[in-house]
Amino acid sequence: MNNIAAAFQEPLDSTSDEPLYAQLERRILQLIATGVLDENVPLPTEESLVKTFGLSRATVRRCFKDLVDAGHVRRRRGLGTFVSRQSGQASITRSLNFSSEIRALKMTPSSRVLEFRTIKSSASIAQNLHIAKGANVWRIRRVRLADGSPVLLTTSFVPTLLCPKLSEQDLEHSLYSRITEQSNALPARCEEIYDAVCLDETDAQQLDVPIGSPAFRIHRASMDTRNRVFEISIIIEPASKHRFKVSTDIDEVHFEKIFDMG
Amino acid sequence: MNNIAAAFQEPLDSTSDEPLYAQLERRILQLIATGVLDENVPLPTEESLVKTFGLSRATVRRCFKDLVDAGHVRRRRGLGTFVSRQSGQASITRSLNFSSEIRALKMTPSSRVLEFRTIKSSASIAQNLHIAKGANVWRIRRVRLADGSPVLLTTSFVPTLLCPKLSEQDLEHSLYSRITEQSNALPARCEEIYDAVCLDETDAQQLDVPIGSPAFRIHRASMDTRNRVFEISIIIEPASKHRFKVSTDIDEVHFEKIFDMG
Questions:
Q1: Does the keyword Transcription apply (chains A, B) (predicted)?
Q2: Angle at A101 between CA A212 and CA A71, to 5 degrees
């Protein structure tokens, strides 16, 4: 089953206060956000969505109209409806989709898998994933590279119950789209705590930076639309290649990552 | 002249597209944001604002109504109109007003002044402050403390032209309200770049943390309502006491500082 079909398997909630067209809209935005839908693949047609969800034609039409008006998608005569280029820049895409981000910078993303196995979850991992202590989790440790040069180091923990089948090959692409496919867990949001650290020998060597050099250490929890934590990870970003920009005005704070391969 | 009077000296712009009630509203929100107006001092009366700005009664009333409706201020019968408690939590207050932030945590803020003098601006300082190279600037280096314990280290540069009179005593209170008073520069926004660093001996000693321990280093530029840079600073926040939380969902990113004296 492809990712798009998997994502549409879960029915919409007709008892919710949120109108159905808005629920459908959010579902599609999530697919865009996680990179499952991109500029190259047409969205499901209005007809197929009417069928899949048993929705009225007007509901689906309203959803598509809103997405077009907001600039998220555009209709291409005779070809279908496609994600607009800038819509791939949604906040959560940038956070969760390393490959898209690197490609947007006109570089080639790759991964070096350092560790890939299942372990029994420790008390702290179990607590953060909201699973029973000792339940199986994937432990995936990867260096992510841009044009062959190390950019960051991630250690991820994913409940095997959510994603029973995972191969090293899957990790070359997006881990998240693989999770979505198997679990219907559509990434909806993530929470990150940023620390500053000085790198130990192991991490420094993997990242090809001097021992003791400064880095950001990020603890991330990723939640799906039903607010289940489907992954936690620890991300090490060396300060030589990462900074972030915070703009504050009277009532808003903007946060932006700056990635510097210079 | 007190800060409130100073802030109202600059006339509103009757040629602007922005309605006068909205301009007045923004002016008042800035005073709240910078801590010049707080829960303890009543706002100027509607009558006095009508006079000061030569505005119609309806304009001032509309501004106050909006501020009340938005929960920024509340009317206290027989006493006047006061800032609501939570409104003092505006984004820019938290960024620029160390003392308010520490007091909100039920601790006592203080400062240790390490350096306080005027220097000729270097090329890089001049460029960042948009002034001529060699123009005089205040260089102010302070350790900021909470309950007597060092929390962060700031090195600030302020053009003396904007704030000719400044004493070491002024620094005990808010530097920003002193700048507002002398220059009519109302802080409106700031931009910060966050780096991770490992502390050198000097900074580590001032902050009472081990040499080489990790910290955030923040380059900040603060702008007034006319988009003039009125201050730049370098802020060192040891990782042992500071972290950041970033929450990302489909189309929004929230950034929050976490301050941990534990």
A1: yes
A2: 145
CATH architecture of the domain covering A3-88 = Orthogonal Bundle (1.10)
pLDDT in tens, B4-25: 676 677 788 888 888 899 888 8
- Euclidean distance between CA atoms B213 and B199, whole angstroms: 6
CA distance, residue A45 to nearest chain B CA (Å): 23
What's the token pair of residue A59? 């509901």
Please name the residues in contact with B52: beta carbons below 8 A apart, sequence gap of 6 or more.
B8, B44
Residue B173 gets which letter from DSSP? S
* Least confident span in A147-151, A170-174, B186-190, B223-227: A170-174
Q: Which residues pair with A221 in a beta bridge?
A: A191, A232
Residues of A whose CB is below 8 A from B26: 250
Most confident range (mean pLDDT) of A123-127, B42-46, B183-187 is A123-127
Give me the CATH topology for the region B91-259.
Chorismate lyase (3.40.1410)
Closest CA in chain B for residue A96: B248
Bridge-partner residues for B192, per DSSP? A246, B220
ipTM over 0.90: no
Q: Report domain extents, chain B.
A: 3-88, 91-259
Structure tokens at B242: 């500071």
Residue B245 and residue A26: Cβ atoms within 8 Å? no
Subunit contact A214:B198, Cβ cutoff 8 A: yes
Residue A211, SS3 per DSSP: coil
Interface probe with A: pick from B87, B250, B251, B259, most Cβ of A within 10 Å: B250
> Tokens 């895409």 identify what position?
A93
Strand segments, DSSP code E, in chain B are: 73-76, 80-83, 109-120, 136-146, 149-159, 187-198, 214-224, 229-238, 242-249, 253-259
Q: How far apart are CA B33 and CA A202, in angstroms?
A: 45
